[in-house]
Specification:
Aldehyde Ferredoxin Oxidoreductase Protein, subunit A, domain 2, Aldehyde Ferredoxin Oxidoreductase Protein, subunit A, domain 3, six-stranded mixed beta sheet
């Protein structure tokens, strides 16, 4: 099949209807695939005010336009829905091998509608698509579910995406897991899948993808792969230490949030960093996603015999410095529990960090712990214990933690202690110390997020050029460019890490060789801008108004108290008017019709 054969599988869980259709080439040129095209379809088909847990909400699993090709990092897919955590449009990205397998089966995306009366899973073997009873795996973790369903399929090459108990129990921070430990992690997409009584999707494809210019694409892909292998981050740092190569870099820059963003350096960073993972011999091997020369994945085995992928930088930070914990064993163990139960590791760790600050300030009474360990910063027993409680919604506090940090803190009367934007937990970079990244946090279309415009690249790592982190001039323009480019990357099916060696021209060259579209770089970037504005319009119609383009008050009112960035606060509000102007929105942040 041609790479531009955009076959769509539609499954209605309410009545069991399964149908196929094909998208026209104009839609592909306008939105590409993945995040862009799936968001367009979702926005066209659901009401902005739909309850995320209603059968009327839809869940779309969509590959990128180039997903499944033998190009550098072309293994990604997106989960698109309305978020139960933020109320915004949710689009969560994952790698591994599930997305490419879906393409090989002949499908560009799966649109999941309605709600099944009982637990089911979707079985896909090329043209053979059926709904099957999932009662035997309902309640099982992602590892058990994957193993059982692969065995049931009769084909060891089958790939599985599923929800764990957290998704079944509608935790607003639940992830969709694929290949056991790969996660479409953020925005609560797993809870939407669980709300539909859909446990899993099992796919096996035997087809292949044809490019417009096969030899040209191979030539271009080889050149880009060489660029990736020779890049300092993609070719050296990430393969050597994974994303945890960042721990010491960010800590030394004074941006490493500690104890729920109360401080910005962590004295015990050497005990929890990427180097420590190697030195303690927890790291067993590297793992790569489909067609990836970077191989940043970590497969770890703990002394107690538990094993799995991770932790990533964000996970290690959320359970480490953000919770004040220096016990690497407990951090890795918590990560494994998140993967098995199907939790977003960033939101899970940050929610426990928020609970620790609430507890230490006397806002969570001791009786609410129900004989569990004390929620003090630094308590390694607590992060393991409460992650389990959170994923299973056990006890009063476990139930509240499963709602995410904002709703949990709100229940105790102090939502200001939740370090979130639009109710989604912020990741591992303090916005006071990186002014452009702070603007990106505030304006992200899916709430607190670092992968919608990774301004850490220029402000800390020097990609594609070094910007002074406290500089304000020019930052709104940089944020817009990074946000638009990320929308392109998400829609083509590349990994964000490819943006270290690649720029917009590189993605355009790969796109044109694969599809024959013959687009200019400006036209490609215009697609990214179109996607961003489309998401923004939906969010506003859904009630997420421009007033929410902000950060927690802590970042404006409390200067960083320690480290090389001591004394600084966020100046995001000074940057916002210029950002709106560059976007072509009105002065209040509304997108013209």
């Amino acid at each position: 099949m041609k790479i531009t054969d955009a076959n769509v599988l539609r499954v209605n869980l309410s009545n069991g209807d399964i149908s196929r259709s094909e998208l026209n080439i104009d839609l592909l040129k306008t939105y590409f695939g993945g995040r862009g095209l799936a968001s367009k379809i979702l926005i066209d088909e659901i009401a902005p005010d739909v309850d995320p847990f209603s059968p009327d909400n839809k869940l779309i699993l969509a590959t990128g336009l180039l997903t499944g090709l033998a190009g550098p990092t072309t293994g990604r897919y997106m989960a698109i829905t309305k978020s139960p955590l933020t109320g915004t449009i949710a689009s969560s990205n994952s790698g591994g091998f599930f997305g490419p397998e879906l393409r090989k089966a002949g499908y560009f995306m799966i649109i999941i509608e309605g709600k099944s009366e009982k637990p089911v899973y979707i079985s896909i073997k090329d043209d053979n698509v059926v709904l099957k009873d999932a009662s035997e795996v309902w309640g099982s973790d992602s590892h058990v579910t994957t193993d059982k369903l692969v065995e049931e399929s009769g084909d060891k090459k089958a790939k599985v995406c599923c929800v764990g108990p957290a998704g079944e129990k509608l935790s607003r921070i639940a992830a969709i897991m694929n290949d056991k430990d790969r996660a479409a992690g953020r925005s609560g997409v797993g809870a939407v899948m669980g709300s539909k009584n859909l446990k899993a999707i099992v796919v096996r494809g035997t087809g292949s993808l044809e490019m417009a210019e096969k030899e040209k694409f191979r030539e271009v892909a080889r050149a880009k792969t060489k660029m990736a292998k020779e890049d300092g981050v993609a070719g050296e740092g990430l393969p050597a230490l994974g994303t945890k190569v960042l721990d010491n870099i960010i800590n030394q820059a004074g941006l490493y949030p500690t104890k729920n963003f109360q401080y910005d350096t962590f004295a015990a960073v050497d005990e929890v960093c990427g180097e420590a993972l190697v030195e303690k011999k927890y790291l067993s091997k590297n793992k790569a996603c489909f067609s990836c020369p970077i191989a940043c994945g970590r497969f770890c085995i703990l002394p107690d015999g538990s094993k799995g992928e991770g932790p990533e930088y964000e996970t290690g930070w959320a359970y480490g410095a953000d919770c004040g914990v220096s016990d690497l064993f407990a951090i890795v163990k918590s990560n494994f529990i998140c993967n098995e139960l199907g939790l977003d590791t960033i939101s899970a760790g940050c929610t426990i960090a928020t609970a620790m600050e609430l507890y230490e300030k006397g806002y969570i009474p001791k009786e609410d712990l129900e004989n569990g360990p004390a929620l003090n910063f630094g308590n390694s027993e607590a992060i393991v214990y409460y992650t389990q409680k959170m994923g299973l919604r056990e006890g009063k506090l476990g139930n509240l933690l499963a709602e995410g940090s904002y709703r949990m803190a709100e229940a105790y009367g102090h939502p200001e202690l939740s370090m979130t934007v639009k109710r989604q937990e912020l990741p591992a970079y303090d916005p006071r110390g990186v002014q452009g990244h702070g603007l990106q946090y505030a304006t992200s279309n899916r709430g607190g997020c670092h992968v919608r415009g990774y301004m850490i690249s220029p402000e800390v790592l020097g990609y594609p050029e070094k910007l002074e982190s406290q500089q304000l001039e020019g930052k709104p323009q940089w944020v817009k460019i990074f946000q638009d480019l990320t929308a392109v990357i998400d829609s083509l099916g590349f990994c964000l890490f490819s943006s270290f060696p690649f720029g917009a021209d590189d993605y355009t060259e790969l796109l044109n060789a694969a599809t024959g579209f013959n687009m200019s770089t400006d036209e490609v970037m215009a697609v990214g801008e179109r996607i961003w504005n489309m998401e923004r319009k939906f969010n506003i119609k859904a009630g997420i108004l421009p007033e929410e383009d902000t950060l927690p008050e802590r970042f404006f009112n409390e200067p960083i108290p320690d480290g090389p960035q001591k004394g600084v606060v966020s100046k995001m509000r000074e940057l916002l008017p210029e950002y709106y102007k560059l976007r072509g929105w009105d002065e209040k942040g509304y997108v013209p019709e």
